[in-house]
């Protein structure tokens, strides 16, 4: 693996040197590829176009990110920004590379979560769009366009992760392939119309399953905090280490989002029926609401409190998008029509 890691570092160096002028673009792409962007950006946009696709985005994002977390605990993947120093292979020639605020993630590196979750959730979007275009135009070329954009998007997300030293190339490839497979499989098993008990039970199973695996590996003498220690040791700036990139943050986000999805479908089965103009208004208001929900400061000590509030934050996300905002818009427009 040393040779693969070494070549990955030199590739990152060449990428930074040749595309440094596109730094802002790569940072934007890595932000779009962040798993939380699937819940906060892609979900509301998709839901107000197609309710089923919106529900599928939350479902696929949560399950694929959970599987990514479990895979990382088992595979022990290194990250370039700490491996450069830990390997001691670059004493004679240090690579000319730079870190960024998004570089210092604290979980293991393999497979790439950005690539895996992006490949899974964006497959839901492009497959739905491709099918829609073909049903309306019967043009193979036009309906194939979303799939081409899908490939370009995955390449861009992967390159951005290599550029900022968050992943090695093989981790990006592994994440993309795995995410694509999960997207294809999970998009055919969307839990529409399931009772609240299903979502509650599924969320508890994901939580207990991850905690059981964590406890089992710890019992075997495997220290699962190794990546956090290395991230803190080799990150250029201490403030770039954030608790919301820790493995348990992913776990609480996924469990919270799934429970929130179940609650939203329980409160309003089938969702609100809105014309296009109220849908657009709902999308705008929901996006602003999620922006402020995401920016809510959470106390990082004690960590249990942080994770509990982080869980609640993502329980709120589907409520806001599927129930509260479209409900208020419906009431407002309904009254206006009656007047």
From TrEMBL:
It is a multi-pass membrane protein. It holds the Pfam family PAP2. Substrate binds at residues 79, 161. Its main location: endoplasmic reticulum. The active site is at 114 (proton donor), 167 (nucleophile). InterPro entries: Glucose-6-phosphatase, PAP2/HPO, PAP2/HPO_sf. Residues 53-187 form the Phosphatidic acid phosphatase type 2/haloperoxidase domain. Belongs to the glucose-6-phosphatase family. This is Glucose-6-phosphatase. It comes from Echeneis naucrates (Live sharksucker).
């Amino acid at each position: 693996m040393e040779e693969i890691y070494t070549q990955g570092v030199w590739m990152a160096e060449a990428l930074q040197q040749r595309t440094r002028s596109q730094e802002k673009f790569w940072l934007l792409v890595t932000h779009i590829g962040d798993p939380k962007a699937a819940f906060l950006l892609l979900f509301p946009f998709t839901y107000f176009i197609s309710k089923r696709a919106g529900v599928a985005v939350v479902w696929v994002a949560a399950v694929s990110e959970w599987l990514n977390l479990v895979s990382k605990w088992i595979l022990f993947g290194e990250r370039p920004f700490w491996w450069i120093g830990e390997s001691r292979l670059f004493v004679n020639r240090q690579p000319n590379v730079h870190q960024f605020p998004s570089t210092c993630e604290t979980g293991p590196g393999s497979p790439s979560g950005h690539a895996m979750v992006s490949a899974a959730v964006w497959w839901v979007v492009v497959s739905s769009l491709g099918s829609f275009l073909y049903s309306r135009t019967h043009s193979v070329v036009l309906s194939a366009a979303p799939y081409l954009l899908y490939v370009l998007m995955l390449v861009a997300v992967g390159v951005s992760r290599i550029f900022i030293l968050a992943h090695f190339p093989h981790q990006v490839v592994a994440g993309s392939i795995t995410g694509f497979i999960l997207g294809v499989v999970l998009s055919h098993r969307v839990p529409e119309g399931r009772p609240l008990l299903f979502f509650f039970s599924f969320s508890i199973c994901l939580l207990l399953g991850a905690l059981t695996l964590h406890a089992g590996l710890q019992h075997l003498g495997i220290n699962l905090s190794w990546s956090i220690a290395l991230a803190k040791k080799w990150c250029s700036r201490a403030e770039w280490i954030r608790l919301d990139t820790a493995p348990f943050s992913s776990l609480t986000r996924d469990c919270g989002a799934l429970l929130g999805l179940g609650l939203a479908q329980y409160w309003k089965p089938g969702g609100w029926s809105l014309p296009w103009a109220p849908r657009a208004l709902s999308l705008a208001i929901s996006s602003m609401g999620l922006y402020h929900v995401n920016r809510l400061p959470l106390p990082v000590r004690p960590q249990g409190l942080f994770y509990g509030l982080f869980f609640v934050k993502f329980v709120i996300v589907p409520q806001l998008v599927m129930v509260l905002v479209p409900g208020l818009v419906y009431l407002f427009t309904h009254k206006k029509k009656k007047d």
